[in-house]
Amino acid sequence: MPLIQRLCIIGVGLIGGSLARILREKGEVGEIVGIGRGEANLRRAVELGVINRYETDPVGGVAGADLVFLATPVCSIASVLARIAPHLAPGCIVTDGGSVKGEIVATCEALMPAGTFFVGGHPIAGTEHSGVEASFASLYQGRRCIVTPTAATDPLALHKVVRMWELAGSEVVLMDVEKHDRVLAAISHLPHMVAYALVNAVGGYDRFEEGILPYSAGGFRDFTRIASSDPAMWRDIALMNRESILEMMDFFSRYFAELRSLVDGEDGAGLEDFFARSKEQRDAIL
Amino acid sequence: MPLIQRLCIIGVGLIGGSLARILREKGEVGEIVGIGRGEANLRRAVELGVINRYETDPVGGVAGADLVFLATPVCSIASVLARIAPHLAPGCIVTDGGSVKGEIVATCEALMPAGTFFVGGHPIAGTEHSGVEASFASLYQGRRCIVTPTAATDPLALHKVVRMWELAGSEVVLMDVEKHDRVLAAISHLPHMVAYALVNAVGGYDRFEEGILPYSAGGFRDFTRIASSDPAMWRDIALMNRESILEMMDFFSRYFAELRSLVDGEDGAGLEDFFARSKEQRDAIL
To answer: Which Pfam families does this chain map to (chains A, B) (predicted)?
Structure first.
């Protein structure tokens, strides 16, 4: 028997579509109903075999689902849940894929009717592309997925969400929401802030020293790929994880200032040590 | 007739080895003599067919060469040239691959005996690997190579060096040395400083929030790959291009501070605009 009888995916893009693909491939889902605002994208998702059928109205779409996956932009997760919550089937589990958890988990838990269950989640996976066309079954293979139970989380609902991500190929890690938001600020949100600022700085310099970006080699391109990420999504993340991001930006600035002072002071030994410590840590995650 | 009769490559690693491979492949060099300090690496270079023979003594090695390519670490280019200069054949052209040009070009030009010619160069190519095993014939294919003539540069020597890089597959750009050093500070040296500082900051945070680096997804890995670069090489670059690097670090810090203030002020429109400007510029160099 499949893990999920009727899965409802709200937002059939890279994240939602990739989960749908792997669960269908594994035979772990009876039926997948896709919900979204763009009907062309939903039709394409049916053509591609990612979902069985679609609804553009989330209220009707969630009817009879035993699991709902909220894969919408991070800022609309709570508002979408507010709309569907009264229409969830008894026993229904709702989980999400938002990359900020604190605010979302608190709001969503409070919205759930009695006898339905919310479990916050965040698969650490993605590419710079979006939309159902960009989705693929192995997106989650070998990647971590953070699931964030609270004191209010139902143990059976937690178990089912964990099992779903394991079946998708992820290594599931349980973490409290505050730690999740600090960890993500460090390993994802800060690097994005740095990359966006770097490209703007080099591009800004470009204006009075015309055409320097084309000289950039592979290193710069790799380094700045994440600056191609969706501006609206990152606006929302910056707003929703503001405190942790500010903390990490200031933390980074202290290291950057230390390095500046080593360069300024022509401290060869200090520079080599600074670079070697970084290389050692970077090589450890290769 | 090949472009070069006897090419002497001092430093047979990724940069020197890759140039040797492509010029042999194209039949544009009569003989290649490799010079280096590590005899095992030089023997391997002969076995791999990268060079014809080797010498460990640079003075003897440059005898009879019509072109010498200095592919040693950036800080030793001038000192190696000081040693070989009195032994160069009449008409010999010396060029280098150093990623900082101002100091090197001025010092090297002054060292050249009458009737021999120096031309500064910098192929914008590389990987995070080093050594002759890492070299490959297509390293320079489609990449820019900056050649930095001065008022003292011999036109025929310049022409030969440009032709050599074109035969290696590069798009050659002529640039004055000061502009080269500012451009490289922007597109390469600054990103390395940022990446090294970022990994140290995240790693430093890691110490009191154990084991967060393994949660990092592909974005972080791509973004920080350049922090795996050789610490000694980057120490030398930071010391040799100090002024331009400090200028760019300060330029970056202004943009980073602007972004911090947008996050702090919860300025959604400003954040989206900041990210969109960056994305637009990044996408233009894809």
So the answer is: PDH_C, PDH_N
Contacts of A281 in chain B (CB under 8 A): 199-200, 202-203, 206, 213
Check CB contact of B110 with chain A, cutoff 8 Å: no
A143 interface with B at CB cutoff 8 Å:
yes
> Do A4 and A28 contact (CB within 8 A), yes or no?
yes
Smallest CA-to-CA distance from A121 within A184, A60, A65 is with A184
d(CA B169, CA B172): 9
Token digits of residue A120:
């916050």
Tell whether A204 and A121 lie within a shared domain.
no
Q: How many domains does chain B have?
A: 2
* 3-state secondary structure labels for all residues of B32-96: EEEECCCHHHHHHHHHCCCCCEEECCHHHHCCCCCEEEECCCHHHHHHHHHHHHHHCCCCCEEEE
Alpha carbon distance B74, A228 (integer Å): 33
Which of these three, B116, B143, B175, is where a domain ends? Answer: B175
C-alpha dist (Å) from residue B8 to A222, A282, B27, B132: 33, 36, 16, 15
Phi-psi region for residue B11, left (φ > 0), alpha (ψ -120 to 50) or beta?
left
Specify whether B79 is located in the same domain as B150: yes
pLDDT tens, residue by residue, B119-143: 999 999 877 788 899 999 999 999 9
Give the nearest chain A residue to B281 (CA atoms): A203
Residues A158 and A25 in one domain: yes
B170 plus B254 within the same structural domain: no
- Whether A40 and A170 map to the same domain: the answer is yes
Fill in the DSSP letter of residue A124.
-
Summarize pLDDT for A65-89 with one digit per residue, the tens.
999 999 999 999 999 999 999 999 9
Are A206 and A135 in a shared domain? no
Domain C-terminal end among B146, B175, B204? B175
- Do both B20 and B136 map to the same domain? yes
A86, with CB counted inside 10 A (0-12, 13-18, 19+), is exposed
The answer to whether B198 and B224 have CB atoms below 8 angstroms apart is yes
Element housing B220 (H / E): helix B218-224
Co-location of B56 and B108 in the same domain: yes
Q: What is the pLDDT of residues A206-253, one digit of tens each?
A: 665 666 777 776 667 777 888 888 899 999 999 999 999 999 999 999
Q: Which domain holds residue B220?
A: 179-283
B90 CB-contact burial (10 Å; exposed 0-12 / middle 13-18 / buried 19+): exposed
Give the integer Cα–Cα distance in Å for B107 and A282: 36
**Kind and range of the H or E run holding A67:** strand A67-70
CATH number where A255 lies? 1.10.3660.10
CB pairs A-B closer than 8 Å: 308
Q: Is ipTM strictly over 0.90? A: no
Paired strand residues for B9: B34, B69
